[in-house]
Amino acid sequence: MEAEHKISITTKTLASGNCQVKFFVEDELKPQYGYLLVNEPKSVGEIIEEIKQKMERRKHAAMNMNPFFPVKPMSEDPNFYLYSA
Q1: Contacts of 82 (CB under 8 A, 6+ apart)
Q2: Disulfide-capable partner of 36 in 21, 43, 56, 67 (CB 3.0 to 4.6 Å)?
Q3: Which residue, 74, 49, 55, is CA-closest to 64?
Q4: Per-residue pLDDT tens for 31-85?
């Protein structure tokens, strides 16, 4: 099982009423950051759990990619962006 990495977040309420969450994944080997758009009020714990789930799904989708037909099997989530820092 992978080690848990610390995730820190900052939130910003948009004019649309949605909440933009900027997050940082603190990992010495592969630091990452990203954005998540939240449409409903959620606690910090719920937001961090959602980020973890989306990162895990993205990781598994990349692992299951066929090297002879490199098309991602699932559509991208337009409310979740992840970048290498």
Answers
A1: 32, 33, 34, 54, 55, 58
A2: 21
A3: 74
A4: 999 999 999 889 999 999 999 999 988 887 767 666 665 555 456 788 999 998 7
